[in-house]
Amino acid sequence: MTANTRVLVVTSSILGAHGQSLGLAQHFQRVAQQRGDLTLKVRDVIADDLPHLGLEELSSWQVTEEERTAEQRELAARSDALIAEVLDHDVIVLAVPMYNLGIPSQLKAWFDRVLRAGKTFRYTENGPVGLVDGKRAILLGARGGKYAGTAMDSQTPHITHMLGLMGISQLDSVFAEGLNMGEELKETALSDAHQQIEALVASL
């Protein structure tokens, strides 16, 4: 990355200060702040309380800016701002807990607004093509059990495909797993994850 790399950290734990994925994000931030060439911004989709995407908001995207009502302009502005934020950063860090084998619904609501045809991808005769170039993504995953590399990890492919739809193909993943499988395993998993995060920050 070039000097003054801009990093967007997206957190999505409903457990607040007790969230293990939030802890991974905070460790990333602490290490990153030790460098003088990284600019950090945090987007907490839980605090944002993003609603599920509805028809009225979706419809607001289909209307030209000149034709939108005041309500449609307000609804479209939500997606516009989140997309602009993604485009304004070089690295997207996703701190993601696993809930029932998937991602938090609030994070899905964020993805539903940044994955937008004509803005971050477009449809072609050969399928969708991403419009977001030159970005790098980092997944910080916290999980109570062990799922990475197994058929039960439906979360990682989902995130990979959603990022890929935008054109973000460079994805590094750090998983802290087995966090509910005993204190010793938890401490080892978190320590290993912290070391991997430190190496990733050094590579930015």
UniProtKB/TrEMBL annotation:
One of its GO terms (molecular function) is FMN binding. It catalyses: N,N-dimethyl-1,4-phenylenediamine + anthranilate + 2 NAD(+) = 2-(4-dimethylaminophenyl)diazenylbenzoate + 2 NADH + 2 H(+); 2 a quinone + NADH + H(+) = 2 a 1,4-benzosemiquinone + NAD(+). Keywords: Flavoprotein, FMN, NAD, Oxidoreductase. Binds 1 FMN per subunit. Residues 6-199 form the Flavodoxin-like fold domain. The keyword NAD applies. InterPro entries: Flavodoxin_fold, Flavoprotein-like_sf, FMN-dep_NADH:Q_OxRdtase_AzoR1, NADH:quinone_OxRdtase_FMN_depd. Its EC number is 1.6.5.-, 1.7.1.17. Its cofactor is FMN. It comes from the Bacteria. FMN binds at residues 13, 98-101. PANTHER family: FMN-DEPENDENT NADH-AZOREDUCTASE 1 (PTHR43741), FMN-DEPENDENT NADH:QUINONE OXIDOREDUCTASE (PTHR43741:SF2). Belongs to the azoreductase type 1 family. Also exhibits azoreductase activity. Catalyzes the reductive cleavage of the azo bond in aromatic azo compounds to the corresponding amines. Homodimer. This is FMN dependent NADH:quinone oxidoreductase. It comes from Halomonas huangheensis. The gene is azoR.
